[in-house]
Amino acid sequence: MLVALEFHYRDPVRGFPQHSTRVALFPGAFNPPTIAHLAIARAARQWAGEVVWTLPRAFPHKAFEGAGFDVRLAMLRQLLEGEPGSSVAIASGGLYVEMADEAREFFGAGVEIGLLCGRDAAERIAAWITASRESSKPCSIAIRCWWPAGRERCTCRFRIMRSGLFV
């Protein structure tokens, strides 16, 4: 049985705009959430009606170190109170495709799900693509990067077709 994202904060003024058909998931460890995270999320609002800061219950590639899960969740809620179009959710799955499936379960099939990631995650994704190609397993994945104003822009873009996840 597929589980939907569990929301812990949604912007009370905007929530999910009824006219928007795009949501950007922003999964991360957020230990701590930084101004760089905030700048990426704000830039993504040009594309998405809502940015969902997503904290997985478990990471597929590392353990929780430093701040615990509840502390990270509290930091995100405090940071995002009053931030337009921002939400905080918990994902049961730790893989991007699992989080996208949970978002699809919550938002419905008519909403395009985007994925935000920082440079470290983009590098991991690129390594997974390389490993997939070397093992002959099919892989269709791409990255879309948002940078704060005045920074060099990243133009790479691709899609995971299985869940309609736009990266």
Write the layout of secondary structure elements.
Layout: E1 6-10, E2 22-27, H1 35-44, E3 50-56, H2 69-80, E4 86-91, H3 96-107, E5 112-115, H4 119-134, E6 159-160, E7 165-166
Parallel strand pairs: 2-3, 2-5, 3-4, 5-7
Antiparallel strand pairs: 1-4, 6-7
General description of the model:
- This protein is of the alpha/beta class.
- The chain has a domain at 6-117: HUPs (Rossmann fold), CATH 3.40.50.620.
- 30% of the residues lie in helices and 19% in strands.
- The protein contains 4 helices and 7 strands; from the N terminus they run E-E-H-E-H-E-H-E-H-E-E.
- The protein has a 7-stranded mixed beta sheet with strand order 1-4-3-2-5-7-6.
- It is globular.
- The model is unreliable at 136-144 and 146-167 (pLDDT under 50).
Entry keywords:
single chain, 167 residues, Rossmann fold, 7-stranded mixed beta sheet, 4 helices, 7 strands, globular, disordered C terminus
